[in-house]
Amino acid sequence: MALFCLAALWSFAEATLFFIAPDALLSIIALRSLGKAMIAALLASFAAAFGGLLVWTCAQHFPEETLQVLLLVPGISGPTFEMARQLLQAGLFEGLLGGAFSGIPYKVLSAEAGYASIPAQSLFLVSPVARLPRFVLVALISWSVSRLVGARLSDRRKLALCLAVWPFVYANYFLTAGW
């Protein structure tokens, strides 16, 4: 139960100001249990919707302040907002899903939805459906790799391997997106 709460809190935090996605935690949960990872992914996707709604509200009521705060978050820059704007032009679901798989932070997409006056209810309803596929994919990859190596690696070594992958992923992301 604590892992589920942590996944939800982490996802809410990442949807607002934190800059590490809950994928890292979901991959760790999936090492042992795909079922638990799927539940955590589902909870994380709903918690992200609440965080997105908060960012949307801030963007609607305090647009300049919201922009300035989000620009302080590592990996977010002016061009990030332009890319989010372009993604959302294809439609809300398409934009959120595209952002989930292209490295555009959900918080930026939520802010852009607020700036574009996309209805809050739409963002809230579409967000979990658009966030879930990436969370599920990360869990499936982690679980599959864990099964692939099987008993050749202990649970402790699988965890160490998983924990070693995420700094590499984020180092690459921040090299590309900027710190």
TrEMBL record:
Keywords carried by this UniProt record? Membrane, Transmembrane, Transmembrane helix
The residues that cross the membrane are 39-57, 159-176
Could you tell me what this protein is called?
DedA family protein
Q: Which organism is it from?
A: Roseibium aggregatum
